[in-house]
Every structure is written in structure tokens, then in C-alpha cells.
Design a protein that fits this description.
The complex is a heterotrimer of chains A (173), B (307) and C (430). Chain A has 173 residues and is mainly alpha-helical. Chain A has one domain. With 430 residues, chain C is mostly helical. Chain C has one domain. Chain C has 21 helices and no strands. Chain C is globular and about 70 Å long. Classes of the chains: A mainly alpha (173), B alpha/beta (307), C mainly alpha (430). The structure holds sodium ion (2 copies). The site of one sodium ion has 8 residues of chain C, from loops.
């Protein structure tokens, strides 16, 4: 089991690294676009379209890793008032509810990409890229998030630490 | 039993396409004795984006919706036939093309679980520029905003820089000078008040773009045959009126542009010749890319339109 | 309308109250309410919507500006900024707290989004001010409030969306936002000053020397900040970069600064990128949830029915505006501000115009109401952004931001009685 958990953490981390690379590429591509359109009478025909695709990686493929980091936000105003021994069962219920949602969303996104593949849907931009590719990447991102939620639930049942404490440089309290 | 359909329209309430839709809904309500009620939701207020409309109607997320045909060429390539540059010159030509292509459009859209009710063209297309462009040399280096593969290729072939800008960036880019020119219809030009940034209008008439109003097929099939017949009849009849409105729209909008200080002129012969030369291979490319009946349709059109 | 509304409110209370993550809660509630009251394929609606949120061009600047803030955090910029300003604000009540307002107002001139403004400015100011002994809640509240000015000062995505929908000049709207934006900044600074005069411990003194020479020397430390701002603002206003691209230019500028501070290496860059991914993941899932819930409510006709009900009251123009302010304030607690505009405008705009209000004025009115939405709990994006920087509780930040929300309400009332303040500048055009 520990093996599986480590695998999931690895996949989630890989997702975050992918998101980082996408973010870097996004910045480089747009800076390059400013240079070529301002000084070289050229424009990258893919700049707008690919900024959308890179965005989806930045926004969602690191989501599972961010969960493990404790970065996703929850409102604890009410639950903080509960007796301590209620916390763990409630937290498990929260994870289950989140997993139910992301599993549902994953399957919807897989179907979305699958149908685009079946229809042969292409983008309207000059590249005419097949849309199923970025759509599948989005589905994969949410699947990774679901796996991270699953890992969280397993850890909760085993009584392990579920989040690596979230410290941001500059705020170490 | 009363049928209630939500109609999703991406354009604002005062756009003529939206007004057409409202008129259509009113006529349908009257003709069906109040049994089929269509509620028009303008400005994308139902939460369906323009380029998502085809899928949203297919899946019944909205009962009805209108979208520009060319926006969905990635899904239904034959919808791009009107947008082959310089194939169609006026409303009469467009009528001929639509008469020929309509059965194919309808069949293709039916595969995507929707029935086409009517189609209305956007008014004639124009280049809106800061500087005068009268010859190919004038166009060199002008940064023009383009919105799809066809227009991008044309603009690059003309020696201009084809900028892809997302829609929210366009007005600030016009204001700061990031972009020098745009292409669209007079309706959009007036709605976005181009005179605040641009000086000249060239009626290039380089391509045509129509909207289609579609209804989800399952919901359509649930109607009584009498209602179906009544709605189809109204669609056919009102479409003709809507085309007249579209044609009048161009003159009206050009007058508004002039009133606000822009120049309006036809593209010079030199400009037109350069544009035709820059797009000459696009018809063959289209046929090659789309396949199917596209060659046959274009040939039939050329024959009947005498081109 | 009543049944779906009650259903949604109960679910909101249940999900958020039992501490289910905000984004997952909103999406679940949207899905459940559609399943309950509509016969549409909710899974397909959700997939289509999620895909369009994930690739929404309006969001491209968000990761870029956040990355800019993360890189700047690694430089000496914030240290220098505060050291440079400290001797000048020694006698000013509130002292360096004002940097939040000034920084946000200046940054608003490049950023069209309020979450991006808050994240970038916050990354520079919050850690440094806390280190200097400023009250954490006080500075967080100041930032939450002033981060919203990003919507009023051009460029502004909500103003563009409104301009397209209402068919009014976006240029005039941009001009109309400037004066109210500056007034708002001024009011925020006055509040900060008054509050710090009452409780001086909120903003401790951070500088002893006051000689003119020292003051002038300290100005040099502001040079990097000044150059960076000029670089980014200049790239856009000189027509080199689009609004989206200006964010990438910001990243470039921050990278150059980091390099000149000799703090640029692979580790620093990787850390900044991972930090960006963390913050973006957090915002994205909530944003996707908020947008989906907004659309679900639009499909259930809730906002339009309420707006139509307001129309039915046949109110006097002033009563109408107050009613609408209340309506948007309540909507803004739960929904994303921009979607509330899109959903309700077809109903509210004709009402307002019929009541004799200028559509440009109404645009500015709406923008201020959605600015408030950024800092009202439970769903307020600036609150979330600040939480992710400082780790404070949402409630704590929301309470600290409350005075700023009240100031905005005050400004809306003031502008209602003095519409000329909004319409004067755009009317000077041609
Ligand atoms: Na702004
Ligand atoms: Na809020």
C-alpha cells in the first residue's frame, strides 16, 4: 500500500513539474511574441491558441500536488468548534465527497475528449490541431487530482499525515 | 402541453441577429397559439460561449442557439464554404450558394443532433485601418488582427502581420497601437466604436459569414407535426426578411461610420487584385481538406452563379 | 425560483460549513442543483464548462503575474522598496501600510484582474511588512481592499466585458473608471491613516534617521521598482505588448532584476514556478467551481428571476439603484463577479437605462459592486489569495477587509448622487 501511495505522490509531483514547465513556456512564448511582432514583422500563428492549452496545464495539472501541499482552500470556521474526535471522520467524509466530484468530472472530461476524437474536432486556429489532445490532458489532470484524493483517504484510514505542512518562503510560523 | 425553449445568443440585445431571433420567437408563439414559447437569452447570459454552441445544442444543454458557421469549421468543415475568399460577391450569389449547400449543412448538423432552422449572413466584410491602404505596398508590415486559419493565411500572404489576439485584448491593443487594423462587418465596427481608434474603412467584401439558428433534434422531434410544419414555414419565410435586414445593415452602419469621421470606400482595384492573388489557392485547399461533396457543391455554385 | 434558491443555499451552508474544499463544494452544488431541477446532461455541461474555463484567454495573465511576484520575492526589490520609502512615511499615520494601496493602484495600470494584482503586490508587501512588525490583519485587510482597484483602473477585463455587452465605448468606460479608482485609493489611505492614528501599534515606526541626505539616498533604493514598473507599463502603453503579453513582460522584468541582484539560478526559478503552480491550482479549482455554479444558477434562472422581480417593484430611480446594489452585493458573496454581470445584464441594463442612468455610469457602478464581491465571504477571491500567502483564516481576513467593503458601498452611494464624477472625464473626449 505504501508503494501505491508513493506512486501517486510521484505522479502528482510530475503533474506539478509539467505545470511549472508549461508556465515557463507560456512566459517565454509571449515574450517572444512581443519581440517578433514589435521588431520583426512576424507573429507566431500559434501564440493565442497555445497560450490557452499551456494555461490548462498551469491551472490544473499540479492540482493533485497542491492538495498534498495543503494549498486548496476550505472554510474551517464551523468545524473548528467541533470536538476533536469528530475531526477525523468529518475529514474523511470531506475527502470522499471531493473524490466523488472529481471522479464524476474525470469521467465527464474523458468522454468530452473521446467524443472530440470521434468527431475529429479541430481547432479553428491556423494550426487546426486536434482538440482531443489538450482535452485529454485536462482529463488526465483531473484524474491525477482524483488519485491524490484517493491517496489522502487511504492515509486518513491508516492514520498517517495527509498534508506536508504548507510553508511559503517568508512565512514560517 | 406548452413547450418552453431557451435560445442562447452570444451577441448583445441590440445586435440585429438578436432582434431577428426575438421576432422569430414572437412569430412562433403566435403561430402555435402560445404552445411553443422560445425565450431569447442575449449576450451569452445562459453561460454558453459562442464556440461551444454547437456542442451545447447537440447535447441539449440549451434547446436552441445561434452561432456563426465559420466558428465551427473544426467540427463541421463544410460550414466554411462561404468563407472561401472571393468565391461569393453579393447576396444573390450567397443565396445561390446557400440553396446548393443547405441540404449538406442540414445533413451534417443532423449528425450532430441538431436541426437547422434558418441562416442569416453578417453584412459585407471590411478592412478597418489607421493608415490608407491602396496598394499591396501600403500593406507591408501592417499588424492586422485575424481570427481564424483562412484570414491569417490571407493577411500573411498580403505582406501584413497576422496577429492572433484574444477578443478581450483587441480594444486595448487598438488604443495603444499594438494592432493597426482589423477586419469585420460594419455591425461589429459600430458596436465597438472603431472610430475611436481607426480612420479608414475599405469594403473588401472578401468573404461571407453566416449565422445558423439550430434546435436540438430530440426536442424538435418531440413537437407535434403541425407545430413542426408551422415553425419550418415561419423559418423559411422570415429568413428572407432577415436577409433584407442584413443587407440594409451594411449601408446603415457605413453611414454611421462616416458620421463619426471615418472614411468609407470600396477596395481599390490594385488592393482587390492583390487580395485575390493572395487567396487564389484557398478554394483548392478547401476542397482538398474538406473532401466529401465540397468539390461538387462549389462546381454547382460556379455553374449556376455564372463564375 | 424559490425552491432551487433555497436548495442551493442549504447545500452551500452544508458543504462549506463541513469544510469541504471551496472549489469542490461549488462544483458539487452546481451539479446537484441541476440534477435536481433540470433535465439536462449535467456531466456534459460540466465538461464543456470546465474545458472553457481551463483555456479561458482572460485567465492567461493570472499565472504570469503570480510568477512575476514569486520571482520578485527572491530579489531585493521588496526590501529596497520599503527601506527606500520608510524615511518618507515616518510621520504619515499608517506608514508603510499605504504601500499596499499605492502598489495596487500602480499595478492596476497593467493588470486587468484583481486576483493577479492582489497576488503580485501581496507577495512583495505582506511578508516584508509582517517582518517589520506591522499588524498582519491590518495589512492583509488593506491589501484585500486595495487589490480590487485593479478592476477600475484600465485595463480591466470586467469593463471590457461590460462594454461589449452594453455596446458602450470601452475607451470611455476605461476613462470613467480612473477617477473613481483614484478616489477609492485615496479613501482607503484616509481610512488606514485614521485607523493607525487610533491604534498606533498597528503600524510601528521602521525608520529613525530623518536627515534630508538620508532621505535622498534612500530614494535610490526605489530605482529598481521604478524601472520595473516603467518597463511593464511602457511595454503596453507604447504598443509593444498586448494586455496579456504585458504580464509576460512583467516576468521578464522580474527575471532581469533577479539576475542583476545575482539571485537568479535554476533553484530560484524552479521554486518560483512551483510556488506559482501552487497558487494557481488553488485559485483555478475555486474559479472553475464558482463559474460552474454561476452557470447552473443562470440555467435555473435564479438571477434573472430576482432581477425581474426587482423590475416588477416599479421603484423610483434611486430606490432601484439601492436595490440593485444590495442585489449585486448578495450575489457577489457567492458568485464570481464577472459572471454575475453576464448573467444579469440583459435584465438590469434596460431597467437602469429606462430609469435615466447613463450606461457608462452604470458600468462603473457594476465594477465597484463586483470589486466588493472579491472581498465578501464566503467566496471572495482576494481573501483566498491572501490566505494562500499568509496562511490566515478566511474569516480573519474578511473581517479585516470589511471596512474597505463599507468604503466601497459609501463610494457607490456618493457616485449615485454625483454621477458627474464618473461621466466627466469620458465626456471630455472629442
Ligand atoms: Na487594471
Ligand atoms: Na464574495
Amino acid at each position: 500500500m505504501t508503494h501505491i501511495l508513493r506512486w501517486i505522490d510521484g505522479i502528482a509531483f510530475a503533474g506539478a513539474v509539467t505545470a511549472s514547465i508549461a508556465c515557463f513556456c507560456l512566459a517565454v512564448m509571449l515574450v517572444f511574441e512581443v519581440i517578433v511582432t514589435s521588431f520583426f514583422e512576424w507573429s507566431q500563428p500559434w501564440a493565442v491558441e497555445f497560450s490557452g492549452y499551456l494555461l490548462l496545464f498551469v491551472l490544473f495539472s499540479g492540482s493533485g500536488w497542491a492538495l498534498k501541499q495543503g494549498a486548496h482552500i476550505r472554510v474551517t470556521a464551523l468545524t473548528d468548534m467541533l470536538p476533536a474526535n469528530w475531526m477525523r471522520p468529518l475529514d474523511i467524509l470531506c475527502s470522499l465527497s471531493a473524490l466523488a466530484l472529481t471522479a464524476y468530472l474525470s469521467s465527464a472530461l474523458v468522454e468530452h475528449a473521446w467524443r472530440s476524437y470521434g468527431f475529429g474536432s479541430l481547432s479553428v486556429f491556423p494550426s487546426r490541431s486536434p482538440l482531443w489532445v489538450p482535452q485529454a490532458a485536462l482529463a488526465l489532470s483531473v484524474i491525477i487530482l482524483s488519485l491524490s484524493l484517493l491517496a489522502r483517504i487511504i492515509r486518513q484510514f491508516r492514520g498517517e499525515v495527509v498534508e506536508t505542512p504548507s510553508t511559503i518562503a517568508g512565512f514560517n510560523e | 402541453a406548452e413547450t418552453k425553449w431557451d435560445v442562447s445568443i452570444p451577441w448583445g440585445a441590440s445586435e440585429f441577429h438578436t432582434k431577428d431571433a426575438v421576432a422569430f420567437a414572437a412569430a412562433v408563439k403566435e403561430a402555435t397559439g402560445g404552445e411553443v414559447v422560445m425565450t431569447v437569452h442575449a449576450g451569452g447570459s445562459l453561460g454558453v460561449r459562442h464556440n461551444e454552441s454547437l456542442r451545447a445544442i447537440e447535447d441539449g444543454l440549451v434547446a436552441m442557439g445561434e452561432f456563426a458557421a465559420f466558428v465551427n469549421v473544426g467540427d463541421v468543415p463544410i460550414l466554411g464554404v462561404e468563407s472561401i475568399p472571393f468565391l461569393i460577391s453579393n447576396y444573390a450569389d450567397l443565396r445561390i450558394m446557400q440553396d446548393i449547400v443547405r441540404p449538406t449543412w442540414e445533413a451534417e448538423l443532423m449528425k450532430r443532433n441538431q436541426k437547422m432552422l434558418y441562416s442569416v449572413p453578417w453584412p459585407s466584410q471590411n478592412f478597418f485601418t489607421k493608415k490608407k491602404i491602396e496598394s499591396k505596398a501600403d500593406m507591408k508590415g501592417i499588424r492586422m488582427r485575424t481570427y481564424d486559419a483562412n484570414t491569417a493565411t490571407m493577411v500573411s500572404n498580403l505582406g501584413m502581420v497576422a496577429l492572433q489576439l484574444n477578443s478581450a485584448d483587441v480594444v486595448p491593443a487598438l488604443a495603444t497601437g499594438k494592432v493597426d487594423a482589423v477586419m469585420t462587418s460594419g455591425s461589429t465596427a459600430v458596436a465597438q466604436k472603431y472610430w475611436e481608434f481607426l480612420k479608414h474603412t475599405y469594403n473588401t467584401n472578401h468573404l461571407w459569414a453566416s449565422n445558423v439558428m439550430n434546435v436540438n433534434l430530440d426536442m424538435w422531434n418531440a413537437l407535434s407535426p403541425a407545430h413542426q410544419k408551422a415553425i419550418e414555414g415561419l423559418a423559411r419565410k422570415m429568413e428572407r426578411d432577415f436577409w433584407v435586414i442584413s443587407e440594409a445593415e451594411h449601408k446603415k452602419r457605413m453611414a454611421q461610420l462616416v458620421k463619426n469621421g471615418m472614411t468609407v470606400q470600396a477596395a481599390t482595384p490594385a488592393l482587390k487584385a492583390a487580395m485575390i492573388a493572395a487567396t487564389v489557392t484557398m478554394e483548392a485547399d478547401f476542397i482538398k481538406r474538406v473532401g466529401g461533396k465540397s468539390a461538387e457543391i462549389i462546381a454547382a455554385y460556379r455553374k449556376r452563379a455564372g463564375k | 425560483m424559490t425552491a432551487p434558491l433555497i436548495f442551493i443555499l442549504i447545500l452551500l451552508f452544508g458543504f462549506l460549513g463541513s469544510s469541504v474544499w471551496v472549489g469542490f463544494s461549488l462544483m458539487s452544488i452546481g451539479a446537484l442543483s441541476l440534477e435536481m431541477f433540470k433535465t439536462i446532461r449535467v456531466d456534459r455541461f460540466m465538461a464543456l464548462d470546465f474545458w472553457s474555463t481551463a483555456t479561458a484567454f482572460e485567465l492567461v495573465t493570472l499565472p504570469l503575474f503570480i510568477l512575476m511576484g514569486e520571482i520578485l520575492f527572491q530579489t531585493k526589490l521588496s526590501e529596497n522598496l520599503f527601506a527606500g520609502l520608510a524615511p518618507w512615511v515616518r510621520r504619515l499615520p499608517g506608514r508603510l501600510t499605504h504601500v499596499n494601496v499605492l502598489g495596487s493602484t500602480i499595478f492596476a495600470a497593467v493588470s486587468g484582474s484583481s486576483a493577479a494584482t492582489t497576488a503580485t503586490v501581496g507577495r512583495i508587501t505582506l511578508p516584508e511588512l509582517t517582518k517589520l512588525g506591522y499588524n498582519k490583519s491590518f495589512v492583509a485587510g488593506a491589501l484585500a481592499g486595495s487589490g480590487t482597484i485593479g478592476f477600475l483602473i484600465p485595463p480591466s477585463i470586467p469593463l471590457i466585458v461590460y462594454g461589449v455587452l452594453a455596446e458602450v465605448s470601452i475607451l470611455k468606460l476605461f476613462m470613467a473608471g480612473i477617477i473613481p479608482g483614484l478616489i477609492l485609493a485615496l479613501l482607503f489611505m484616509i481610512y488606514i491613516g485614521v485607523r493607525a492614528t487610533i491604534s498606533p501599534e498597528l503600524a510601528p515606526s521602521t525608520s529613525d534617521s530623518t536627515t534630508m541626505l538620508f532621505k535622498l539616498k534612500s530614494l535610490l533604493k526605489l530605482l529598481p521598482t521604478f524601472l520595473l514598473i516603467s518597463f511593464v507599463v511602457g511595454s503596453m502603453y507604447a504598443g509593444f505588448a498586448s494586455v496579456t503579453e504585458a504580464a509576460a513582460i512583467g516576468v521578464l522584468g522580474a527575471t532581469i532584476l533577479a539576475a542583476s541582484d545575482r539571485r537568479l539560478n535554476v533553484k530560484v526559478m524552479a521554486g518560483a514556478l512551483m510556488g506559482t503552480v501552487r497558487t494557481c491550482s488553488m485559485i483555478a479549482i475555486i474559479l472553475a467551481g464558482a463559474l460552474f455554479l454561476s452557470k447552473a444558477m443562470a440555467r435555473l434562472a435564479i438571477p434573472t428571476d430576482v432581477a425581474a422581480a426587482i423590475a416588477g417593484f416599479d421603484l423610483s430611480p434611486m430606490a432601484l439603484i439601492f436595490m440593485l446594489m444590495f442585489f449585486y452585493l448578495v450575489l457577489g458573496c457567492f458568485l464570481d463577479g464577472l459572471s454575475t454581470i453576464v448573467m444579469t445584464l440583459p435584465v438590469t441594463l434596460p431597467l437602469v437605462i429606462a430609469a435615466g442612468f447613463d450606461p457608462i455610469w452604470f458600468g462603473v457602478f457594476l465594477i465597484i459592486t463586483i470589486e466588493m464581491a472579491q472581498i465578501t465571504p464566503p467566496i471572495g477571491f482576494n481573501l483566498f489569495v491572501i490566505k494562500s500567502i499568509t496562511g490566515q483564516k478566511i474569516g480573519e481576513i474578511a473581517i479585516a477587509a470589511l471596512p474597505f467593503c463599507l468604503i466601497m458601498i459609501g463610494l457607490v452611494l456618493f457616485l449615485t448622487f454625483n454621477p458627474g464624477i464618473v461621466t466627466w472625464l469620458p465626456n471630455t473626449m472629442r
